[in-house]
Each structure stands twice: as structure tokens, then as C-alpha cells.
Input
Amino acid sequence: MDNQDVIDLISKNPAGLFPVQNDFAKVNKTEDFDLLQIFHKYHGSATGTKEVANLRYTRPKLNWQECFVVNHFAGSVTYTVGAEQNSFLFKNNDSLEEELEASIAISSNEFLRNIAT
Output
């Protein structure tokens, strides 16, 4: 079975789940709820609308403000968002710790100093 449509849903630019999440995080958005609304807008048609939804993405009817579902080849997986320790945006924050960033900035290695700027 070809799983390319699931791979595209997750990673294809510009509207894949990961590219959207990365773009969202770059503009310092911190609310998973806002990110989830964008996911729903791009991939899941709202109940009662004529929008075409991605068949591999499900916007749940009941708790749509808390989760989304990816329909993989082997079955459906529900992803819950919003709790701080489970936050999509928090878990995928690639920022450096302040102390590490300060150490890199004063490094004797020119390459490392350039990374910090």
C-alpha cells in the first residue's frame, strides 16, 4: 500500500503539518489552539461545509478544539494538543538555552560565533 498521501500530509510544503508548525513557531506563536485551527483549515473540512477535506486528516466532530486525527495505513492516530507538557510548539522549539547561546557568542571559534549572530 502506498503511504505517500500520509507523508505529504505530514511534510509537504507549504501546508504539511510540520511545515505549518515550523512557520507558526517562527512568528512566535505559542498557542497550540491557534495552530490546530490552521491544521483544521488546511486539511479538515468543517461539519456542514462543502470544503473538500484531506482523507488522511480528520477534524473530530466533538473535541475538535483539542485534537486532530491522522489516518495512517495501519490505522487512525489521535493527536491531542494544548497541554503545556504535550504542546506541539513547546516540544518542537529549537531555541538554544540562554547559557549555551551566550557561550557560543563569546567562543574563540569564529564559526560558532557566527552561528550565534
